[in-house]
Design goal:
heterodimer; A: about 210 residues; alpha+beta; Alpha-D-Glucose-1,6-Bisphosphate, Chain A, domain 4; 2 domains; seven-stranded antiparallel beta sheet; 4 helices; about 30% strand; extended; B: about 400 residues; alpha/beta; Quinone Oxidoreductase, Chain A, domain 1; Rossmann fold; seven-stranded mixed beta sheet; 13 helices; about 20% strand; globular
Chain lengths: ~210, ~400
Amino acid sequence: MSRYEMDHDRGAKLALLVGAGILAAGAAAFWYRSQQPRPVGPPDSAPGRTSRQSRYGDYAVSGRSVTINRPRAEVYSFWRDFSNLASFMSNVEAVKTEGDLTIWTIAAPAGGSVTVRTRIVSDRENEEIAWRSVEGSDIDTEGKVMFRDAPADRGTEVEAVIAYVPPAGRLGQAIAKLFWTEPRVQGRHELKRLKMLMETGEVTTSRNRKSD
Amino acid sequence: MRALTFHGTHDVRVDTVPDPQIVNPRDAVIEVTATAICGSDLHLYDGVIPGVMQGDILGHEFMGRVVETGPDSTLKKDQRVVVPFTISCGKCFHCMKQQYSACDNSNPAEKQDLTEPLYGEALSGLFGYSHLTGGYPGGQAEYVRVPYSDIGPIVIPDGPSDEEVLFLSDILPTGWMAAENCDIEEGDTVAVWGCGPVGLFAVQSALLMGAHQVIAIDHYPNRLDLARRLGAKVIDYNQTHVLEALREMTGGIGPDAVIDAVGMESHGFYPDNVMDTVKQKIGFGADRGHVLREAIMAVRKGGRVSMPGVYGGFLDKFPTGAFMEKGLQWRTGQTHVQKYTHDLLKRIQEGEIDTTFLISHRLPLEEAPRGYQNFHSNQDDWTKVVLTPGT
């Protein structure tokens, strides 16, 4: 073994030891810090769904914002035609309208599906669409999507918020998966696909073949 | 088709895989006529970039002939094109600002799950460069599906050979942007760490942009010689104290701008590098940053730090103090290739830039694994490998 390799080897062992020590100390400090109560001041400007504590009773609430480089009226109209939603919401199989009700067919694990029946409770052109589930819906849910002009002609800020009562049990878990249980993930997927579709005319994919 | 695929650290193979198709309206399919192995492919080869899966087709420097177009592509069959390694939609906020590598839309939504926690925001899609950047099949293949083909590929007129224009796909614009990020002024000294392809193009670009002198740093004699022939002064770090030499070669001031064209796998036996190597080997997601630290120490007060070298994770012992107290500027990023291709093509056509000096080896695609192995292990002789499919 050359001098160089010996030095290298000894350096590596020392580095491992030091590294382990630093990790242990860090973990202890982190644990201690996490046990301390956080001071709570007056309410801040952030949306409630970004709060560290749940504030919504029975409802699980999640949401996500995205800025779309298209005019507000165009984005609003696209969303308002609910039959468009299936083109970027991966779990939604179909959306149809029956009178003043909207019937959502949502894919469930193991090939099944659930039906969510909602009624529009607020529709302000180019500003807001809100809906709430009605009697006979498989899931108790409400949601709204808001449209605002982004600053300096950057397009439209779209903010979507969904609340639902998580049902108990295994079925509940399956249903929860259909909704934005991981808001940062699911919400981003749907809204980014909407953004892709509106900005580029297509939903981006790295699939190399249509059948992939 | 045949394609170079990833099977594990230091294990790449040429396999038969399904041909690509038009999937989206703006797609085109390109038959590859020339493709190259990039220094950054070696980070994949070494297994230090997360999110590379078995069977992934590598390669992001390629050009070829258009064989099929989607209804919204602006390309025409049989056109000869060079394809930027960055995939960009051309319509989002970032593309409108020519920040093509920050494109919002070219990284598929479901591929962004890893990038957002790791980087805060997803990057643009890149060809053949892990699932963090979209999981797009790469260009070391006979055919490539090119998304947003109306924005990326540049059509090459008759005249220049494939080898003269191939590097428009990545390393030439990358070296150019590295020099541009130095904001070169009259009388400036620019120091460049790493005489790989990007470092050498950065040397060439900095001189074209009017740098008073460019100092290139490496330890491979052949690579230093290439830099010298481009007009740079050179430092071999195995025989010279880099910091001291840079100060003495700049009248005691230090270089006005520094370029880290090495990235996350710094060579050299220095204490910080040994620590970084250990962390990288045991999977801490750590970058090896000896060059970056040294560059920040070397640059003059108020100077500029340009970092085209690829990093992927985290770096500690970062000289925050030197950085703040000296009031430095730091500019980096994956290259906004589409911003530079037209201007650089013109410079190639006018004979102002030659890129072929770099090519040391030409291999058929079938021998690509040998190319990787040598580009990795014989870096002095193997400066750039160009692969030709179908031969």
